[in-house]
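From the shared-data thread, chain only:
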Amino acid sequence: MENKSIPARPGPRLERIAMSCFLALSPRLAKVAQPVPPARLAPFENIAVPRRFGPGTLAATWYPAEGRPRGAVLLLHPWLIWGRAYFNLRGRIQALRAAGYHALTVDFGGFGASGPPHVFFDRDVEAAFDFLHRRAHGLPLHVWGVSSGGYWAHPVLSRTRSVAGAFFEDVSPHLFEWSWRMAPLGRPGYVLYRAILARAHRFLDIRRHAGSMSLGAVTYVSGERDKGVRPQDTRALAELAGGRSHIVAGAEHLGAIKIAGDEVIGLALDTFQQAEALVPAVRPEPRWPEGSDAPAPRDICVPNSGRSFRRAPLPLGGERSRAGQWGRRLRAPGRPERPM
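Structure, as tokens:
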């Protein structure tokens, strides 16, 4: 049974054209060599993730859990030159490992040593999930996406049921809406894109994907002073996904983790734990048929409500941080921001 609420993917040729135009309208980033993970994050393993769409592979780093593993988390980076090295800071990886989660960080196409971008970046998320499923040996899978990384996870999550929980920081409902507010000089290009590439523009509206995600739990976090991702955007996505939202007072874009690091990390861990309690079993390995914009029928989950199968949004709770539940106080590294 096909989920009619998910927007149709552009055809292969149109998608390549749409991706080229999307990159032309995106903020320019210099390609730089990725710094190696610092010694404090050892042990780790740098690996290459195979791609089915696009040349080359995706550069990635695997961080095994401390002690007995309970799950595995895919970390997706924002649109910054450092790519996956963004997660070298702020304590996310340390917190996940201490809580019993393997962590996988991946560079999107065009970042670091990954191959060049070819089609929409959700295909890279797809490849990363395929790899994570094999590497995690049946453990529950989760995703932690920041800004554009979380954005590109949505089209994948709307067409698979193989992921238990998701945590998103600073995710815009549509990247062109973010650009409209933050890069106004490109507005004529955004208007042309919507007019000429209407099918691609519709596919890129993740509000149309959020309501079809089949997750045990999902949480959205953003900053009160974020001009690109407004608090109302965060709340709207959470409502569509049947999850919860949290706005960090005084935080700008990518600032929530800096102002309230323990709180953000605690919410992420709580989300994954709640997802594992609500998801009845580990799902089969995801399959993405060649030339298809949706998985095979056995991988499609279409809840009766058209939304996630959670009974109700999870309570946020009144604690400043839940990090202490995992046996150690989590302190995010301070400055400098450069991921050394």
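The mean pLDDT is 85.
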